[in-house]
Structure formats: structure tokens, C-alpha cells
Write a structure and sequence with these properties.
The protein has 437 residues and is α/β, with parallel strands linked by helices. The chain folds into two domains: 3-295 and 423-436, Rossmann fold (3-Layer(aba) Sandwich), CATH 3.40.50; 305-356 and 365-419, no CATH class. 31% of the residues lie in helices and 20% in strands. Strands 3-2-1-4-7-9-8-11-12-10 form a ten-stranded mixed sheet, sandwiched between helices. The protein has a two-stranded antiparallel sheet with strand order 5-6. Strands 13-14 form a two-stranded antiparallel ribbon.
Length: 437
């Protein structure tokens, strides 16, 4: 090899190493907790136009109190067994979870109260079985290697729970993340208001570690500038501008036990947190939002299968139809409290029946499956025939690929879709996050 060729070779090798290092930097190592059938994973994969986007390096899915692990089985069938954990997250050692840049998951909404401080330490004891504390345990256990970013999802009532002390549970989450060096922003998103096929309202939570570009943006701008311009949620899901006077600002206690016992006790029925907001250094700013979307609104009818593909058991005969009409209709029923003997009237208003094909679908619930008439299950009328929605149609309304949950029973597939999220929301948030970092 001549000297010139050798120099050329060294230059090529250095360029290749530089490119490889750049690619490693661009790959965001991600773990998915409470993975279900992989909604977060699919959304992030769709957001990654190249292999240098989100790399799911580890996942966990465990369904308590049941031997059959349908969600985990489907997850493994779709994405493989490698680096997938099907065990109680509480029993997983932090050291067995690979270091990562981004932690994602839709954790259950539960009572987050803190039992007590740990004696002779700076830790806390969260309520047993509450899965938020497993996320907290991972962040604490990873120490300096804790992820830079979190993307979490929950039902929107998280912002208002418990009813006796509205906002306390979310305050505990915010304060504990603040103590670990994170800034947090949140937004309640109704997927249908941004052109997606289901009226599913959920709160999404982004957290950014101190030192990241996004953390600096949140900490160096005025509240209205953050909420109207710099927030990742605003960049992804635009809303109409807020006036500074309409933004509520307050300081969180750093003592989680104090929050548990005293947060919002003076005005417990008033909301401490609105549908949008952010928190930096223990101070939070929150405001109501109004969607600003001018795109096409999705129609339930556009997501139905061809009628020739519908199995006969999904159709409702005339006799059964009367039961469905009763469930969907208005009613007033006298009931008696078994404990106190107190008589009261239970009333329900009339629901649209059958479901309108010209609008986005209603929220899919876990009890969507099964033959029995129900107030909350979907019923459509096509060519003069009433029927329930099929598992494939439920998958489409959550923006999953057709037959993603194939292999489980129809009722279980419906249950899994009732527990899932609308993938398009995650995809859009993932694209924004990739662009920002």
C-alpha cells in the first residue's frame, strides 16, 4: 500500500467512524413499559422514517391476576421475544433494564398516595401495586443514566383525581419528577379533534431532563410563550393562543407526604390542573385549551370492512335489536342502596343509535366485545342491517394494522383495543420529538 493510498484509507476509515457515531447519536434507545399490544412501539416506528429514529431496546408487559398473557403473547408474536419481558415489573431489577434515552408507557390511573417517608433515607414508599412508582423506581435506580426523556399516557381524569382532593395524584407525579431533575409538560388530547377516527381523550405527559435543549426552552421563556410556541405539544397539536392572565401558576411542595395530606384541601372540588400545562423547578403553569385544527375530520364509515367480510355472528336480529334499543334509550330506574336502604332514581339519557357513520367513532371500551346488548358498545347500520364492530374495525379505529391482535378471541381482541391508544397521536409526537432532539 502506497503512502497516498494509506492516507486515503485512514481518511475513509475516519469518515466511516464519524458517520457511525453520528448514526448512534441519532438512534434514540427506547424502552416500552406497560406495553399492551405495542401501540407506543408502532407509533414510534412510524415516526422513524429511517433506522436512525426510535430503537425499542426493551419492553415489558404483564397482566396481573390472570394466567393467560394475551397482550404479551401478541406483542411477542408481532415484534419477537428478544428483549421482551413478561413478568411483573415490580419484580424486575433495575440493573436488568438496559440504559435508554426515552421511556414510554401508558400506566394505569390509580391512587398515588405516599404511605410514608423511608426512615433514615431520602426515599419514599409509594402505595403498593401503583405502577407509577415502578417508573419512579427505574428513574431513581438508573441514577446518572436515567433517561433524558419520558413520554407517558393516562386517562384524563388523572389531572382531577382523587375527587376529594382534585389534582393531588398528578401533583405527586410532578413533584417527584421535579426532584429527579425533570421538567414536565402535559396536554389532554382528543384524537378525533386532529383528524383521527376515534373520540378518545387522554392526557399525554412529556418529561425532559435538566440540561436538554427542550428543558432549557421551557425554563427560559414566559409561560404564554411556552404554551403557545415552545411546547412540544403545541408544535404537534396546535391550539388557539392563551392570554397570560388566563394561565394559572402555582408552586408545588417538594415534600410528597405533604402533598398527599394537604394538596388542594382548601378548594378540593376545584381543578388545580387544566388540560395543558408545564412544570419547571417545582413551579407549574396551566391553562385551558381550544383546538385549532382545519384538516379533514375522520368518518367512522371510512374504517369499516366490506360487508362480505363480516361474520354472521356480528349481525343483530330483530328480536335482539329491541334489547339494544332499550340499552341505548333514555330510562329512569328506581334503585335501593343495599347498605343503607336508601331509595334513589338512576337516570340515563338517550344515545344516538345506531352510531353515526359520518363522524369519528365513540371511545372504544374494554367491554366492547361479546354478543350481549350494551349501552356503550358500538352498533352500525349498513345496507339496512345492524351489527357490532369487528376486531379489525376496532383495530382500525385505534390506527393499528389489520389483524394485529389476531390469535386471541374476538372478545379479548376487543378488550385489548379498549385498553390501547390511538397510534396516530404517538406517531405525531414522535416526529416532533425527533425533529427537536
Amino acid at each position: 500500500m502506497t503512502a497516498l493510498n494509506h492516507l486515503q484509507y485512514i481518511g475513509m476509515e475516519n469518515s466511516l467512524n464519524k458517520l457511525m457515531n453520528e448514526n448512534r447519536t441519532k438512534t434514540i434507545k427506547t424502552i416500552e413499559l406497560f406495553a399492551g399490544v405495542g401501540g407506543f412501539r408502532i407509533g414510534l416506528q412510524r415516526a422513524s422514517k429511517t433506522k436512525n429514529g426510535f430503537d425499542i431496546t426493551w419492553s415489558n408487559q404483564w397482566e396481573p391476576s390472570t394466567k393467560a398473557q394475551h397482550a404479551s403473547d401478541i406483542y411477542s408474536a408481532q415484534f419477537g421475544l428478544e428483549n421482551h419481558s413478561n413478568e411483573d415489573i415490580a419484580s424486575v431489577k433495575v440493573d436488568d433494564i438496559p440504559d435508554h434515552d426515552l421511556l414510554v408507557g401508558g400506566f394505569p390511573c390509580q391512587d398515588y398516595s405516599v404511605a410514608s417517608t423511608l426512615k433514615n433515607s431520602h426515599g419514599i414508599v409509594g402505595k403498593k401495586g401503583v405502577l407509577w412508582w415502578e417508573i419512579y423506581r427505574i428513574l431513581v435506580g438508573k441514577r446518572e443514566n436515567a433517561p433524558k426523556y419520558l413520554l407517558l399516557e393516562n386517562v384524563d381524569r388523572l389531572l382531577k383525581s382523587p375527587a376529594s382532593q382534585r389534582g393531588r395524584d398528578f401533583a405527586i407525579i410532578l413533584s417527584s419528577l421535579n426532584a429527579l431533575g425533570y421538567a414536565v409538560e402535559w396536554r389532554v388530547i382528543d384524537a378525533s379533534q386532529y383528524g383521527m377516527p376515534q373520540r378518545r381523550k387522554r392526557v399525554f405527559i412529556f418529561a425532559y431532563k435538566k440540561g436538554t435543549k427542550i428543558y432549557k426552552q421551557l425554563s427560559s421563556n414566559k409561560p404564554n410563550e411556552v404554551l403557545d410556541k415552545h411546547s412540544l405539544f403545541e408544535k404537534t397539536f396546535p391550539s388557539k393562543n392563551r392570554l397570560l392572565k388566563d394561565i394559572k401558576t402555582d408552586k408545588l411542595s417538594s415534600d410528597l407526604v405533604d402533598i398527599t395530606e394537604n394538596f388542594n384541601t382548601k378548594t378540593p372540588k376545584q381543578n388545580a390542573f387544566f388540560d395543558s400545562g408545564y412544570m419547571v423547578d417545582g413551579t407549574y403553569h396551566t391553562a385551558k385549551i381550544e383546538t385549532d385544527f382545519n384538516g379533514k375530520i375522520a368518518r367512522l364509515g371510512d374504517f369499516l370492512q366490506e360487508e362480505k367480510e363480516i361474520p354472521s355472528e356480528f349481525y343483530i336480529n330483530d328480536e335482539e335489536l329491541k334489547k339494544w334499543q332499550y340499552q341505548k334509550g333514555s330510562k329512569s330506574i328506581e334503585r335501593i342502596n343495599k347498605t343503607t336502604g336508601h331509595k334513589y332514581t338512576y337516570a340515563e339519557g338517550k344515545m344516538g343509535f345506531p352510531d353515526c357513520l359520518e363522524k369519528p367513532s365513540r371511545t372504544i371500551i374494554t367491554g366492547e366485545g361479546g354478543l350481549s346488548a350494551s349501552r356503550f358498545k358500538h352498533v352500525v347500520c349498513v345496507d339496512g342491517k345492524h351489527r357490532r364492530l369487528t376486531p379489525v374495525e376496532l383495530e382500525r379505529l385505534n390506527m393499528f394494522p389489520d389483524n394485529h391482535t389476531k390469535g386471541a378471541s374476538d372478545s379479548k381482541r376487543a378488550f385489548l383495543m379498549g385498553n390501547a391508544l390511538v397510534i396516530g397521536v404517538v406517531e405525531k409526537l414522535g416526529k416532533t420529538l425527533l425533529h427537536e432532539i
